[in-house]
Amino acid sequence: MQEFIEFTLGGVKYGMIYAAIALSLVLIWRGTRILNFSQGAMAMFTTYLALIVINRTGNYWEGFAVALAAGLALGALIERTVIRPVENKPPLNAVIVTIGVLVVIEALAGLIYGGTFRGFPAAFCSTCGYQAGSVALGVTPNDVFIAVAVLGAAGLLALAFRYTSAGLRMRAAAFNATVARLLGVRVGRVLTLGWALAGLIGALAGVLVTPSTFLAPNSMDLIFVYGFTAAVIGGLDSPVGAVVGGLVVGLALNYISGYLGSDLIGLGALAALALVLMVRPSGLFAPVQARRV
User: What is the pTM (predicted TM-score) of this model?
Assistant: First the structure.
């Protein structure tokens, strides 16, 4: 029973990180119908910037703030410079461009920082586990911080989309960009904001996961694959689905790793994705479309 509790809580921890990546993908997909395959590389690059600041200042929170600000700026910059020219082109163009951005960012990180794996500090103690009586839960203060940070970011985004003018403009542009323009919405600025917010959420995921995985130019590739799986499972149009999908993937992979062995993790993610696509191809939380007769 104790093993099951530990695997469950560990799955929730990693599920929150996958949910952050999934949420960043959903933000971009809803506004532009583009899958950003460079999201993991963007998160990796901003984490390097955070590490530089932490090493120079000795202050984790300054590095944390720099990572988020860099993610915000990097997302906006990429949308303005390389994504906007292909936003209204065939979908394959955008796929190729985002893969190209992935390759460029990882190559640039390798040139600047080298390929050596580097450690990254955690915000709080990652070895001080909580206990319930005499039972060790396998949960640390840093694990709690990860869950609170991701859920807090998701909650703030949900409130912004529903109750702020910027959020309403983003929803209008995602629903129908042509009508939104006729109503006076500056769709270009709205899309840039969506990419910027996605960059920020991706940077948050990078800073949260790297203490457990080490930092290298391609260290976020596998995390992105799991986050993408979570986004598809939850439904690419649903922020709530992104969080639920992240938890589903995190729990499934942790159970597989704990009970069957870590070698089967990749196969488990693929099986979960295939099962959802067979049962509900649009994702668990995708909006139901009207049936055409």
Answer: 0.87
